[in-house]
Design a protein that fits this description.
Largest sheet: 6 strands, parallel
Number of strands: 16
CATH class of the largest domain: Alpha Beta
Order of helices and strands: EEEEHEHEHEEHEHEHHEHEHEHEEEH
Bound molecules: beta-D-glucopyranose
Number of domains: 2
Number of helices: 11
Radius of gyration: 21 Å
Low-confidence stretches: 12-40
CATH superfamily of the largest domain: Response regulator
Mean pLDDT: 91
Strand order of the largest sheet: 5-4-6-7-8-15
CATH topology of the largest domain: Rossmann fold
CATH architecture of the largest domain: 3-Layer(aba) Sandwich
Structural class: alpha/beta
Amino acid sequence: MKKFAAAAIAVGAAGALVLTGCSSNSRSTAASSAGSSAAAKGFAADATIGVALPQKTSENWVLAESLFNDGLKSAGFKPLVQFANGGVTEQQNQISSMVEQKAKVIVVGAIDGSQLGSQLKDAKSSGATIIAYDRLLKNTDAVDLYIAFDNYKVGQLQGQALLDGLKARKGNGPYNIELIAGSPDDANSAPFFNGAMSVLEPKIKDGTLVVPSGQTTIEQVSTQGWKAENAQKRMDTILAGTYTDKKLDGILSPNDTLGRAAMTSVKQAGKDVPVVTGQDSEVESVKSIMAGEQYSTIYKDTRELVKQVIATIKDLQAGKDAQVNDTKSYNNGVKVVPAYLLTPVIVTKANAAQVYANDPTLAPLTK
Ligand code: BGC
């Protein structure tokens, strides 16, 4: 597990950025891309805060909506929380409208992190602070902070869970597996996949794992829009084409929705349920894990993530520096975005009760 020293970062309206190391008193100006005027610190305690969420492609996003509304309201702010179910253009318009409504902070969970450049630039010029939420905003310097779970770590945990599950459930290898990745427009899909492949690739090379479809690149295995039907269709095709005389032992799935879709496909093909990974701790998947079907998921407690974002907004409101714990991992193509990364947790049937003990929705499912 990566361990970070927490640091504080002053986020300036004009793009000025001051990093403060926690172990020394020295201050250094790390970057100043848009002029050198001093940061206008603080804003009204009842300011409007915009939260632009993507489509409802998994339960975590739905949960985030009410947590942001309730949490921002009780902190005294005026929340403006919107989904962009219609796609990228809708999200672009929503951000522009948040700027018009003078939002002081705009939190963005992007559908496509590369397509919001001009709206974010306008937002920065208006003096707003931009926080990338869960998904990185790419190819723009108009992003101040990234607050998310450690995505690469999520992938590593998934890769390791697949290996552990195969060993526990499928006897000795070699094992036949197939790979699934997330949507190509989501900035998280690559770190998830690359993290997993950092664990699986050596095992493919040494012959422990075999991918009979031959599809091993992220381009070949991605799932447009994170849609269950797309993952299911692809798996149907692979099973019909490659598995007539083979068993399928395992599936790397980047999240629960796609993992369940893949399991449906395998069951419909009349095959034994393979070892399937996931992410998000969705209710149906936790039930499946407890029933001994899906092997693993990841717990990324949305309550903790939203809490961290709101604490950051409160700090900014009060003119304080925002907390960050990683200043090197997330290069968005233009700059390294200072990040606050939370730690994801792997969940199997063995530790579910313990991991979900304080989650009122999931704890009862483990009893
Ligand atoms: C999130 C995952 C989620 C996926 C689909 C990703 O960006 O990090 O938790 O499963 O989007 O909604």
